[in-house]
Design a protein that fits this description.
By secondary structure, this protein is an alpha+beta fold. It is built from 14 helices and five strands. A hairpin with a 7-residue loop joins strand 4 and strand 5.
């Protein structure tokens, strides 16, 4: 850690950096109002970083010392590269936070995959750190989306909730479900707020979506492992499913998310119809290859009839 951090030096860098950025580069709308200063305004940086304008102003003025979590969100808001991140952490006396370290790639534990193999009549996903989608079964692909067509580095449940129009439309109570997912990520982030992957995800969604910025700034947390999700699916219409999440007892941080319906209910019948589109596909969709969509499965079945 730096022995004598200079808050004024950090403030000067922040001012210089925001002057270099145009609003459109950060996902902010252009306005007709003439700007008295080049680049981003203080209030715009504060909004992107989900901190108060007063706190950010004091940072620039060197009147407060930045915490590691605030530096992480500022790095995303100001679109800092790795060298700039290291420089900012040094200026703030937080060089021990190691903002550029990398974690090993996440791999689905064999036991979790075996569980997924056995769930053939109900949608199920294996979620990793930061709600990354590590594996799924065919029923989950038919319910949600063709996960195999999503690049592995962007295959994240929260990112898809906010950026995929089809998944957004699928959720009848999108605002409720998305806000709960943000709260779940916020709770997970407490264990390691400086994880580079987390910083990138939060920075990206902060710039892309006003709802995410608002909900992330709320600091609401949610550790619920069960609940009900309401969907409007293009093939079977409305269905409400119980959602249960089971943590890996080995402590890997991986979770199995399973969606079920009470037998004899309309939702159970709709789920049975939906999962019938996966007939002939008994293996979980591999992480490395593309899975076929429900429409493609339908065409294959029709051709063979």
């Amino acid at each position: 850690m730096a022995s004598h951090p200079d808050p004024r030096a950090l403030g000067n860098f922040l001012k210089a950096r925001r002057a270099q950025l145009a609003p459109r580069e950060c996902g902010l709308p252009e306005t007709d109002t003439a700007r008295r200063v080049a680049g981003l305004r203080r209030e715009e940086v504060a909004r992107l970083a989900s901190i108060s304008v007063d706190y950010y102003t004091r940072l620039e003025q060197g009147r407060v010392r930045a915490s590691a979590p605030v530096l992480a969100t500022l790095a995303g808001a100001l679109r800092l590269d790795d060298d700039q991140k290291r420089y900012v952490y040094e200026l703030a006396g937080r060089s021990d936070a190691q903002p550029s370290r990398r974690r090993p790639a996440q791999r689905v534990r064999p036991a979790m995959r075996r569980l997924l193999d056995q769930l053939t009549g109900t949608p199920a996903l294996v979620l990793g750190r930061h709600l990354d989608v590590l594996a799924w079964n065919p029923a989950a692909a038919v319910l949600y989306t063709d996960f195999g067509a999503v690049p592995a580095g962007r295959r994240n449940y929260l990112r898809l909730l906010f950026t995929d129009p089809g998944i957004r439309e699928l959720h009848r109570e999108w605002r409720h479900d998305a806000r709960d997912a943000v709260a779940a990520l916020r709770m997970e982030a407490a264990a390691d707020p400086d994880d580079p992957a987390l910083v990138r995800l939060v920075g990206e969604l902060t710039m892309l979506d006003a709802d995410f910025r608002t909900w992330w700034a709320e600091h609401r947390v949610n550790g619920a492992s069960h609940g009900t999700k309401h969907y409007r699916h293009p093939l079977v219409g409305d269905l409400s499913l119980d959602c249960d999440t089971w943590a890996d007892p080995a402590g890997s941080g991986q979770r199995l998310m399973v969606l079920t319906a009470e037998p004899g209910t309309p939702a159970h019948d709709a789920l049975r119809i939906l999962t019938s589109w996966t007939t002939g596909r008994t293996e979980p969709v591999p992480e490395e290859v593309e899975s076929r969509s429900a429409h493609q499965v339908s065409r294959d079945q029709s051709a063979s009839a």
